[in-house]
Amino acid sequence: MRYVIVGGGISGVSACEVIRKRDPKGEIILVDEEEHPLYSRVLLGAYLTEKIPREKIFLKTEKWYEEQKIEWLRGMRVTALDSKNQCIALSDGREIPYDKLLITTGCQPRFLDQDLRGVSYLRTLDDADHLLQLLHEQGREAKALIYGGGFIACEYLWTFTHDEIPTTILFRGPWFWSQVLDEKSGRMISTWLKKKGVRVVPSAFVEALIGEETFEGVKTNQGVLEGTVLGVGIGTIPELHWMQEAGVKTHEGVCVNASMETNVPGVYASGDIVEFEDPLFERSLVARTWTNAILQGRIAGANMTGGTEYFKTVSAFSMSILGLDAIFIGDTSRDAAEQIVVEGTEETGMVQRFMREGRIVGATLVGRSQNRAFLTKAILELMKL
Amino acid sequence: MPRITIKVDKDLCIGAASCVTVAPETFRLNDENKAYVLDHGQEPGGPTYERTIEVSEEEKENILLSAQSCPTLAVSIFDEAGEQIYPA
User: Is B11 near chain A, with CB under 8 Å?
Assistant: First the structure.
């Protein structure tokens, strides 16, 4: 049996571990865009703020791939899938046949149209190394701009304030994470950021970057903002073209059922790239979290080796906005909710409950972590709150 | 039955709750959104970030899996002799 895993992140590697355990003799080929052994992207922030040294972010050694008899094709991408003949084409021109295929290629950052030296994205270890290099070069001259109001913006906030760099954050929405958070939660975050010395510019759209080769600032709908470094975190998108061309069903990601199977026999997908059928909420969800990537990868690995496992969990997403905790639990789609109940004050913290058919399906907590366990349980049991 | 010591580094914990999802009998989140350690769902002696507990081989395997699922490597596991089993 030949298993081909496309994507060497946590989901793909978790799948490899399960496959190797259940099929000691099967052939495993791992196609990995990265050159590095598996590392934790979640730890990039800790590395940038010198909480941990660089070597501590690695989760696997190079030797591990050998020991597990995984043929690790690093620095390689898939360019095409032929699902009829069960074979993939690689960026070096090779074609590899498979018996079972797992797609776990994750997402790419949304890029700005322009690029200049001083513009940073934060997805990979190489991105983090690049940012450290920039900050080192700029030293005391550094002046930071952050574009975006989500998880990656949080990482930039920690990094720049750790280095005591004057920081301005611009979001396209009226407040932080405005696609999910209500106005009061959003204002609470803005107040908090200002208290931490960060300049906040809401409803700002970057129209152009300023500078010849080196970044000098941004032109926005609210005027020009100067800076030496720009951290961009305006969302991520999955690259779906080679799957679509092969007839794999996609929507916001690769569509899978709770067994992580796509519509094409023998082809599975897991992690950030998927939109999965959630048996709990009875609808398709996109929930790009580390925990989901691991669990889905493990389930895919089990099912590729003849298992019958299903993904059923209440997804949760947690971030620290310079010390203010924001947590999203379950299905927090504003569009899918029939009713959203907002409670709390800036002093006590804010809670939103997302309701459907009278039952709670999701919640957000800002500065109110103590309600997390109770709300998670309530969502899992779809309680009428 | 093996005895293992489980430690959570609260400075590294970001409340991703992978450990709680994989081993809910061993980990719970506190009001600070940090994971702390339980003994089979109980908290003898009160909440703590470090605890030595007796577990079956199967439970040990699952607790190791929960530690491995932590995105910030905040969970460490030690065997009876005090040797660190994870992160290796």
Answer: yes
